[in-house]
Amino acid sequence: MRILDLLSLSTRMFRSKSSRTFLTVGGMSIGIGVIIFMFSLGYGLQKVILEKIATTESLLSLDILEGESKNPPLNQSVVETVEKLSGVKKVVAFSNLTVKAFDGETGAELKAIVSRESF
Description:
This protein is an alpha+beta fold. It contains four helices and two strands, in the order ααααββ.
């Protein structure tokens, strides 16, 4: 079959089955539109998260936690030592507290972060 015959056959089918052609083109347009919308939504949310939530200040902070190790405990002298390091702008000491309360069969758990000015 020649290319000219294929084009003639396809255009004739478009004209004779116009409703099927319209529904096919409409369905493909809706599908492509939904895919473009989903990609745009994803990239937009990513941009908002990177600009608003993950700021440069949060990426430049360092958390030092007191854990179960043989290192000395976190106290005022350790905070002063960290403050004297080059490149450190601010040191904030805080405690992460968890309180569990029970009243018979029911219980509740409260978590709080408390800033500590002095140890």
